[in-house]
Structure formats: C-alpha cells, structure tokens
Design goal:
The protein has 239 residues and is α/β, with parallel strands linked by helices. The chain has eleven helices and eight strands. The protein has one domain: Aldolase class I (TIM Barrel, Alpha-Beta Barrel). A four-stranded parallel beta sheet has the order 3-2-1-8. A four-stranded parallel beta sheet has the order 4-5-6-7.
Length: 239
C-alpha cells in the first residue's frame, strides 16, 4: 500500500478510536493484580456493552495482556494506561495498544503518540496543565484526580475557559456522580474500581461487572439525552 494511503488508513483508525470513546462515554480502567483478572475484567465489561478497556501498566505483565487481548478480542478497543514516558509509549504501541493514557503531562510522551498516530489521553488537573497538554497535541484531557478537586463542579468550571477541550474526569466517578459529570460537559468518563469491583474479580462473578457496565452506559446516554431517559423511566414505571 502506498505511504499516503497507509497514513490515511492510520489517521482514519485514530478517528474511529476517538469516535468510539465519545460514543460509549465510558473508559473502564483495569488496574488489577494479575493477568487472569485483567482478562476476566475485559471480557465482563465487553459483555456489558463497553467495548473499550484501559489496561494500566501497573498490571503484572501488562504488555502481554494488551497483546493477548488485541488478538483474542478484536471487537474491543484495547488501550494502555499509566504510560509514564516515551519508551513505555513505544512498547505499548508494539504490543498492540490502540490508545494511550497518562496520569500527568509529559511532552515527550505526547510527541511519541502523535508520531505513532495513536490517540492519547493526557492527565492534567490545573488550568495551566490543561493548556499545556492540549497545546502539545493531546486528543483528550484526563482530569485526574477529579473527585478530590470538586468533581462535576470542577469540570463545569474548566469547561468555561476550555469549551473546545474534550475532558475525561477520572477518580471519583461512580454510579451516583456519573450523570452529573456528563451534564457538566465531560466527553467521557474514566471508571475504575466502581466498575471493576474487587469482590466480583476475586469470586469471578462476571454478572456483577456486566450489570454495572450496563448501568454506567445507560447513565451516560440518559444524561446526554434527558428526554429519552425520562421517557424510558416513564415506560418502566408503567410496566
């Protein structure tokens, strides 16, 4: 395939990744203690209607998990989280990661992602960090830790001066706060232990995680389309 067509295909794939994250609105953060748990969690959230997973680099054998999931679950968008530097970004890309997530802003890591044509979600908290990450070329800004910094009200405050910046609050997102984050202007939500429940992992109760995944997706959709959500609730009340 000619170089220009290859570049176009890669660019289109990156746009597809962005569109899927925005459409689903939930990025499950899989930060577990073993490879089997990571596979179990990925399968459960996928079955619950979230075809996206972020495997953090803190998972033992994370690169192998990313590689295996990319091959065995092609219908799922597999990303790498807790990417701290350029070298890690390159290794994640080689393993098959389709997007990268950082806990903070590192210019070299953003530059590496852009060179690799990989979508990158860059961690930031203050307005200064948001500006720096966005100017460097981040595709999404992960507001972290958001729950400790004002939650949905903080997202709303940041969206004032940065309406064009797609923000993904992470930390403090749960079933009670998810809708308020979306209404405040969040493009998507990063959800960890509130979705990937420790007890469900240990007892291998996939139904618990599947059920939570469904609930999170529904909350996002209803917050984006309040009339539709109200109609659904009214319909359920009539049953």
């Amino acid at each position: 395939m000619p170089a220009d067509r290859t570049e176009m295909a890669v660019s289109n794939r990156k746009q597809e990744v962005r569109a899927l994250i925005e459409s689903v609105g939930i990025v499950p953060v899989i930060r577990v203690s073993s490879q089997p748990e990571a596979h179990f969690a990925a399968e459960a959230v996928s079955q619950g209607g979230i075809p996206i997973v972020e495997i953090t680099m803190t998972v033992p054998g994370a690169l192998e998990v990313i590689s295996q999931l990319s091959r065995s679950m092609p219908q799922v968008l597999v990303g790498a989280g807790t990417v701290l530097d350029e070298e890690s970004a390159l290794r994640c890309a080689e393993a098959g990661a389709q997007f990268l997530v950082t806990p903070g802003f590192d210019a070299a890591t953003v530059a590496a992602a852009r060179k690799l044509q990989l979508l990158i979600m860059v961690g930031a908290l203050t307005p200064t960090e948001v500006m720096a990450a966005w100017k460097a070329g981040a595709d999404f800004i992960k507001i972290f830790p958001c729950g400790n910094s004002g939650g949905a009200n903080y997202i709303k405050a940041l969206k004032g001066p940065f309406p064009q910046v797609p923000m993904v609050p992470t930390g403090g997102v749960n079933l009670e706060t998810a809708a308020s984050y979306i209404r405040a202007g969040a493009a998507a939500l990063g959800v960890g232990a509130e979705l990937i429940v420790k007890e469900a992992l240990q007892s291998r109760q996939a139904e618990i995680i599947r059920s939570l995944a469904v609930r999170f997706v529904n909350l996002v959709q209803e917050a984006r389309n309040p009339r539709s959500g109200q109609s659904s609730a009214e319909g359920r009340s009539l049953l």
